[in-house]
Amino acid sequence: MKRTKALLIAAVAALLAAAGAPAASASAPYEAYTYNYYHDAVPLPAPFLPEQAVTGRSLGVGDFNQPNDLFVTEDGIIYVLDSGNARIIKLDSGWNVLHVYKTFKHDGKEDGFANPGGLFVSGRKEIYVADTDHHRVVVLADDGKLVRIVEHPTSEILPANFQFTPLKVTADRADRLFVVARGVFEGIMQFDEQGAFIGYAGTIKVSPSLADRLWRRLATGAQKRQMELFIPTEFSSVDIDDKGFVYATTIDVNSEETIKRLNPSGQDVIKRFGYYANKGDILYRRIGNNSGPSKFVDIKVLDGGIYVALDSNRARLFAYDDEGELLYAFGGRGSQLGVFNTPVAVERIGDRLAVLDRGKNNIAVFRPTKFGELVNRATALHYSGNDAEAVGLWRQVLQLNANYDIAYTGIGKSLLMQKKNKEAMQYFKLGMQRKYYSIAYKRYRREVMKAHFGAFMTVLLCLVAAFIAYRTVRKVRWRRPRSREAGFS
Amino acid sequence: MKQDFLKFPFHLIVHPFDGFWDMKFEGKGKMRVALAILAFVVLSVILQKQFAGFLVNFVDPRTLNSLNDLAYTALPFFLFCVSNWSITTLMEGEGKFKEIVMAAGYALLPLAVVNLPMTFISRFMTQEETAFYWLLNSFAAVWFVYLLFVGIMTVHQYTPAKTVLTLALTVIVMGFIVFLGTLAFSLGLQIYWFIVDVYREILFRT
Question: Residue B30 belongs to what domain range?
Fold first, then answer.
């Protein structure tokens, strides 16, 4: 009896200890994951944890009302586009309000915004506002004075009654403007520094499927007019990296290419070398609640070629490296801190991430965990070519998560550089990278052949000699009785 | 032994018309050889899935199951034999069931004979060389189909056109058998559960 009791107590104690231990890591209100080679969603340690939620009231400027965009400059100045209140709030990195832009002088009159959709701040601290319901892009100086207004674009490729309704805006270092506008399917509108329309970037190709084309052929003229047009989808957001490449997202249910990286001539040059397309979730329900592919509404380029895309469908963040491998995905819908209602914008504040939630009227700030930081740093090191340095970090990542294929691949690549082909093969096998495995194997095989060429040739020549000897002996033996027989007859 | 297990099968796969003729009319084929070849093929399938080189092996290791490999190789084989026998008895085929099994069994030999060494060689291949792996595997498959065709034609003493027709019908009949089998199985299950339910009702009645 006593023993049973003691055992019971021990069992309860063990249970409590087991239950107590993961409580610290279970504080994230979501499960982070990535997809492995076999298209399974593999759980990860949380790469980011929610730190705080910032509301308008906590800033002392009154609640946000349907904020639409967020921008953070390199030096950590935060701009919130509080669309419902038609104002822009400028904050320093300690969340102290520096300035509130509400009106500006335009032709001697006070002018303001109407439901602005997008915000961008250039290196010279000029604020670009996509003033959606006023059909214009407003450029303000840091002190709130009007610099210029871009409106009523005219061009022979635009229809005469064209209504310019900008949603998102970004600018490159030469003050060239990239504007995502409503009802524009041709691509991202580009404006020069004077505000003149110069054309489209990132035109989306539409190729109707075979079945569609067959239907079209069979349909009569009247039926064709009834049919849907093959119109490419609109862009949903733009961001620009420090090399001047524009990252853009589209919402297209049927496309595998919802994230684009446009070079200065407007072509999509993003790398899609991952196990599968970089389009967010690859496993999802087709019908019902929470169904359908990811719908990216914002994208932010971080350091080291990493970009984070925000999915409004399931309210998740997806981080990819420059080769298009999913590093991690996290987030979700809900009311706790760290999950979202209607996320609309993602920004980077130093090493932290900030997500603007239009439904909750707040900004959720995430800080990287050890895992997230290691992954980001290792990816950045690999991106800049410091593979040898990245290896140490990747090994630490593997200690935290042994199921992380990208870490194996990263170590493998570095080993390949160091000509440690056999070890590299092992790591590429673990990372399921057939292409690199083949390269490593080819080198390894040549190495082995070189090392053992002498032995190999000796054995081969011996075998050939033995075979010849065997044949001769057999021939002689076979001929002898026949010649004797011939003698007899 | 050597004659039965090595010389004749290898003679057959390179001289199929001659070989199948000998099998049918000279009594050279042996049932146990045909079944041994089938077992050999099953073995080669299992080994291929397990040991083929990383670059050509796309099988998820978590799904490896030798019993499944056995079932998915042997069952279609016998299903084919049964269906072919059912069709050809109605279509004036001269072959007995035993001869059909033997013809199909001997025809399988190239699959095993090519795939087994290729499994080994594939471990020493780079990405560019894997094309040969796929080529030779497809070649083995085509060879198998050709042998099966000749075998069925010889065993039943058919014309080529009629052989094609019966092979096509065989495939359809295979579908039928699977359908009827599933149907019978599902009906059987329903009856079983009905009886179980009635039994439980009676049990809990009081």
Answer: 2-205
